[in-house]
Specification:
alpha+beta; Cytochrome p450; 4-stranded mixed beta sheet; 3-stranded antiparallel beta sheet; 13 strands; Cyt_P450_sf; Cytochrome P450, family 46, subfamily A, polypeptide 1, tandem duplicate 4
């Protein structure tokens, strides 16, 4: 006891000094947050829920209740105008819906993607998950955005080969012409994943419903939402099991992707015949580098995972929303179907020229993304001072852009909630930097051309082959799961059309 007392008496001053340092550091941080508030509080914005966490409590609560946080962003835009401020700790986000600012920032390569959020996407709960290079300032000489994705015929050839194999309903179900009640959204997720396994030349064993891939993708996407929007999510004991589940899902996607890449590289090096698909193109683009570092190899894998996950999810949801709106507007459905019948008829194969003639279907898909941008927003870090809509914004903030909000503001689109494909008629005025469902500029979506081509081919084939009507009584709400998806699942009565292809 005497020894313990001596040790305690010796340690007490050190503990008191450490405690004093912690108190001073805490007070210093509080003063810094107050300084940030004073620096940016001239910008309009909603009241903070708390001194430290700003408006984040409102958003986290909406997320926990399966709410759509983008509706809150829209509400704030309508209340506070085209520029408003959000706070969390010492971070400041400036949400802006000014077309000139959108053009200035998104079209410039000097504004990197917002570091706080995208670093979390890159390392999902500490597990490396997806592509970093297009999220932040590019430090690699290796550009994994293959040029063929921007060439119409290249994307077209891969899209058509990919969409020949899958079926709707997906493989593993069978029905013969009679009406079937079907949750289209879940089927489309499997359908598009099926096209992706063809486009990447891999086997996910979807036929036997034994593949862990669909669930892993869903788990990763949902985990991203919690990780980005709730900074304390992983530190709450009740979430520990879920966090581990997300890490395992991310690990599965990367290890499986690494295995596929390794097998394909070996086949290429051995001179074996390999498919001319996305995976081959990614590897060949990488092989053009003079030397490949270990980080370059990881970067190639990042791009693979990004393309595979993000492309599958967003395309499936886009198609789900499109079918939902066509079901709600029979006159638009009939017009789109007539165009498909006139251009394609009963042909099995859709030519590249055929796609170019499906003008109204393109309008339908563009209007779908206006109201339902499946990847609804993006953000950039801005280091220097800016003036936005007459308001001086000190440098050191994140500029947040929401295609969801812009698409639903009547200052940009008259009667914005009305589904009207004629907004995108070739002779209609083009939206001026208020429509960007794939973002804009050098850090826009990696596979947007492929995604648009794929959606057009799939919708054309669905309209050619099936009749569908929405089951009454379902909601048309949006589920905000990081990407946006139809909450009801788009339940339809589906049947083959009278003729057979």
């Amino acid at each position: 006891m005497a020894v313990f007392s001596v040790l305690l008496s010796l340690a007490a001053p050190a503990l008191m000094f450490l405690l004093l340092l912690l108190v001073i550091a805490f007070l210093g941080y509080c003063l810094y947050i107050k300084y940030i508030h004073m620096k940016y509080d001239h910008i309009p914005g909603p009241p903070r829920d708390s001194f430290f966490f700003g408006q984040s409590a409102t958003l986290v609560k909406m997320m926990e209740n399966d709410g759509n946080v983008h509706e809150k962003f829209l509400e704030w835009a309508e209340k506070y105008g085209p520029v408003y401020r959000l706070n969390v700790l010492h971070y400041v986000a400036v949400c802006t819906y000014c077309p000139e600012t959108t053009k200035e920032i998104l079209m410039s390569p000097k504004y990197p993607k917002e570091k706080l959020a995208y670093e979390k996407l890159f390392n999902l709960f500490g597990q490396r998950e997806r592509e970093r290079g297009r999220h932040t300032a590019k430090s690699h000489g290796l550009d994994m955005n293959p040029g063929w994705l921007h060439l119409g015929h290249g994307a077209y050839m891969i899209t058509c080969s990919a969409t020949e194999a899958p079926q709707l309903p997906p493989r593993g179900t069978s029905w013969k012409g009679s009406n079937h009640v079907l949750g289209v959204s879940s089927c489309l997720c499997m359908f598009v994943l099926d096209t992706f396994q063809v486009a990447f030349g891999v086997d996910l064993d979807l036929l036997n419903n034994s593949s862990p891939f669909p669930k892993a993708i869903e788990t990763c996407l949902r985990g991203m939402v919690y990780y980005v929007r709730d900074m304390f999510f992983e530190f709450k004991p009740k979430n520990r099991a879920y966090v581990n589940k997300v890490r395992e899902a991310a690990r599965l996607l990367r290890t499986t992707g690494a295995k596929w890449i390794s097998e394909r590289k070996t086949a290429i090096q051995n001179g074996d015949e390999v498919p001319k698909d996305i995976l081959t193109q990614i590897i060949k683009s990488a092989s053009q580098e003079e030397s490949m570092t270990e980080e370059d190899e990881e970067f190639m894998l990042d791009n693979f995972v990004t393309f595979f996950i993000a492309g599958q999810e967003t395309t499936a949801n886009k198609l789900g929303f499109c079918i939902m709106e066509l079901g709600r507007h029979p006159e638009i459905l009939e017009k789109a179907r007539k165009e498909v019948d006139d251009v394609i008829g009963m042909k099995r194969d859709i030519s590249y020229d055929d796609l170019g003639e499906l003008v109204y279907l393109s309008q339908v898909l563009k209007e779908t993304l206006r109201i339902y941008p499946t990847a609804p927003g993006t953000a950039r870090d801005v280091a220097e001072d800016m003036v936005i809509d007459g308001i001086h914004i000190p440098g050191g903030f994140s500029a947040v852009f929401s295609s969801y909000v812009c698409g639903r503001l009547d200052r940009f689109f008259k009667d914005p909630l009305k589904f009207d494909p004629d907004r995108f008629h070739p002779d209609a005025p083009k939206p001026y930097y208020c429509y960007y469902p794939f973002a804009l500029g050098p850090r826009s979506c990696l596979g947007q051309n492929f995604a648009q081509m794929e959606a057009k081919v799939v919708m054309a084939k669905l309209l050619q082959r099936f009749d569908f009507t929405l089951v009454p009584g379902q909601t048309f709400d949006i589920l905000d799961a990081g990407t946006l998806r139809p909450k009801s699942g788009v339940v339809c009565i589906l049947s083959h059309r009278d003729y057979k292809d």
